[in-house]
Amino acid sequence: MKSSSRFYPLVLGGAALLAVLGLWLIISQMAGPKILPRPWSILEEIARLWRTPLSGRPLSGHIFFSLRRVLAAFGLAVLTGLPLGLALGWFPVFRKIVTPIFEIFRPIPPIAWIPIAILWLGVGEGSKIFICYVGAFIILVLNSLAGTLYVDRTLVNAARVFGANQKRLFLEVALPAALPAIFAGLQNGLSMAWMCVLAAELVGGREGVGFIIIQGMNMDRVDMIMAGMAVIGALGAIFAALLRVLEKTLCPYRKQLV
Amino acid sequence: MEPQLSVSFAAPPSGSARLGGQKAPNPSGSDLSGQLHAEYVLRSRDLTVAYAVKGQPPLLAIDGLTLGVKENEFLVILGPGQCGKTTLLNCFAGLLKPNSGAVEFLGEKITGPGLERGLVFQNYALFPWLTVEDNIAFGLKSRKTPKPQRKALVQKFIDLVGLKGFEKAWPETLSGGMRQRTGLARAYAAGPTVLLMDEPFGALDAQTRYAMEKELLAIWEKEKRTVVLVTNNIEEAIFLGDRVALLTQRPGRLKAEWPVDLPRPRGYTDPAFLAFRREISERYDLAL
């Protein structure tokens, strides 16, 4: 390996990718493109959806709807879930009061809320945002709770010895100590929001990337389904990368871990 | 927050060795107050600490310990593992409340942490999200020292501990020795009357340890403070201390104490040092 060891993982990863692509082509050849379309037909389908409206909207319109739902729900979850989780981790009495209530709702999968959300909020934006919110909220609460709860006691003691008051203990010790856990929560919460928006759009609605996927199923178009899946995957990857950039900026000392 | 302590643990009869035995000084003698009142900067009196252990009787860590340190004295507390050294230091630091007895700073009962008592941690306990200089500035921020003075003081102690050029470094990127230099500078910069050091060089290799011991003394000669240093290493104790207090294995009681009359600088291999070490080891059957 020697000097080439830096490229070694790159070569290995590339070879594996090519192998999967080859396998894909072989299966597609054997099963026929109707069952498994070739990789480039999916790109073509994405281009077609971009130009040709589906249910009155081009792909960008559908992306806009899904994106708006996810970001609205995720934003609400950050605004409510993070403070709640931090407070739960920092104030033991508050934790003892709230934990039993929270534990009742925690194990319920967010998708189980879909019927009730539709009955209460209708089939419009409200119910879809609500479902995404529930999914992201619980993850954000749990992660920020764990982050503040498991702050190294020695660091808290060090801060106390060097005269930190409660405000500084929280803002300058607990919060920075919890940041890595919080960012893990943001990543997982955002994934959950994407998962939930798809579920909500599969159940009802005439717009969104989930709607494209369900239309593909109804029209027996695997390339359309896979185009929708690819779009969702790309959007998720972009947001995950943005969050990593933010984490790098806020936790510069954790360089070696990124 | 802290280790849980059983609140109502009765102090056992104290038959352990005592230091001095003076009563509280008379505060009315104003001309003597400087001498008498501050005879001990830091002192424990009949200190007893026990940890609550689930399903078992409380674990006695320190049993009726009376021990004091005078102004600008370098006191080393020597003892085997589990002798309550760290517990004692945490009581001095105000992180731990005694079950009975008291810890006092200048005759006042210690009820919590205070900037007049700085602590150097065994495992450094630096804030990983703060640079070296921000770690060192932590106590000064608590003191609300104005920024220009704060910067000047931080730089002074960075220079003193030999960390020039590493002001903006993250603690994670430093060696153990350099981390402890940061810990020492952080404690010094907070402006304490007493420096408490909990096996500060225990995690370092022998070479670095010896270098750090020498440097600590050099810093201490320049910036005199009252020091209480805890160690399990007899050589370190004799090398550093004006006085050494030897604690017994759990529960910690005062077994013996002696002044170290060797002139500084001392050397690990000086005949006088070796003779002193041998005498102590033989008298107290120490293999430390």
Describe the protein's topology.
The complex is a heterodimer of chains A (about 260) and B (about 290).
Chain A: H1 8-31, H2 39-51, H3 59-90, H4 92-105, H5 114-121, H6 125-149, H7 153-161, H8 166-203, H9 209-218, H10 222-250
Helix pairs in contact in A: 2-10, 3-4, 3-6, 3-8, 3-9, 5-6, 6-8, 7-8, 8-9, 8-10, 9-10
Chain B: H1 30-36, E1 42-53, E2 56-69, E3 74-78, H2 85-93, E4 100-105, E5 108-109, E6 117-120, H3 132-142, H4 147-160, H5 176-189, E7 194-198, H6 206-222, E8 226-231, H7 234-240, E9 243-247, E10 254-259, H8 271-284
Parallel strand pairs in B: 3-8, 3-9, 6-7, 7-8
Antiparallel strand pairs in B: 1-2, 1-4, 4-5, 9-10
Helix pairs in contact in B: 3-4, 3-5, 4-5, 7-8
Task: Describe this structure as you would to a colleague.
Chain A is mainly alpha-helical and 258 residues long. In chain A, 78% of the residues lie in helices and 0% in strands. Chain A is globular, with a radius of gyration of 23 Å. Chain B has one domain: P-loop containing nucleotide triphosphate hydrolases (Rossmann fold, 3-Layer(aba) Sandwich). Chain B has a six-stranded mixed beta sheet with strand order 6-7-8-3-9-10, with helices on both faces. In chain B, a hairpin with a 2-residue loop joins β1 (42-53) and β2 (56-69). Chain B is built from eight helices and ten strands. Chain B is of the alpha/beta class. Helices cover 32% and strands 23% of the residues of chain B. The A-B interface holds A 153-165, 168, 172-173, 176-177, 179, 251-253, 255-256 and B 1-2, 93-95, 112-115, 117-119, 121, 123, 125-129, 138-139, 141-143, 170-172, 186, 190.
